[in-house]
Amino acid sequence: MLIHLKLALRTLRQERFYAAINVTGLMIAFICTLLIGLYVFQSLTYDQHTESHKKLYRATIDLINGDSHNTFALMSDAMAPTLALQNPDIEGYVRFKTLPEKPIVSIGEEKYLEDAIFGSDSNVFQQFGHQSVYGDPSTALTSPTSIAISDSFNQRHFSGENSLGSIITVNDIDYQVTLVFSDVPGNSHLKYNLLFPINSPGFIPSPANPVMALFTVNTYTYFILPETYDVQKFSDFFDQFWEETTAEVLGDSGISSSMALTPVADVHFGPTVEFDQPTGNLLTVYAYGIIGVLIMLVAIVNYINLATARATRRFKEVAISRLLGAKKRSLIMQFLYESIMQALIAAILALIIIEIIFQANAPASLVNALDLTSLRTPLAITGILFFAGILGMLAGLYPASWISRQKFSSRTVTSGHNRTEPILRQVLIVFQFAVTISVIASTILVLSQMYFISNMPLGFETENRMVITVKGASAISRVPALKNSLNSLPQIESTTFTNFDPGVGFSAGNWRIESAQSQMENSFMSYQNADADYLQSMGLELIEGRFMSPDDENRTVVVNETLVRTMGWTNPIGKRSGMPGSPETQDSEIVVGVVKDFNFDSLEVPINPLIIRLTRPEYYQSLPDSVAPHQIARLTIVLSGPASGQLIQQLSSTWQEHMPELPFEFRFLDDIVASRYTSETGIFNSLSYFSGISVFISCIGLLGLTAYTTERRTREIGIRKVLGAHPRQLLGMLFRNIFVLILFAAIIASVVSYLSINAWLSGFAYRDEINLLVFPAAAILTFCLALLTMTLQAWKPIHRNPVHALRYE
Amino acid sequence: MIIRTKGLSKLFRTEEVETTALDGVDLSIQEGDFTSIMGPSGCGKSTLLHILGLIDNPESGEYWFMGEEVSKYTERKRAILRKHNIGFVFQSFNLIDELNVYENVELPLIYTKASASERKQKVEYVLEKMNMAHRTKHFPRQLSGGQQQRVAVARAIVNTPKLILADEPTGNLDSEHGAEVMNLLSGLNAEGTTIVMVTHSAEDAAVGSRIIRVLDGRIVSEAANV
Ligand SMILES: Nc1ncnc2c1ncn2[C@@H]1O[C@H](COP(=O)(O)OP(=O)(O)OP(=O)(O)O)[C@@H](O)[C@H]1O
Ligand SMILES: [Mg+2]
Question: Is the pTM of this model over 0.90?
Answer without folding.
Answer: no
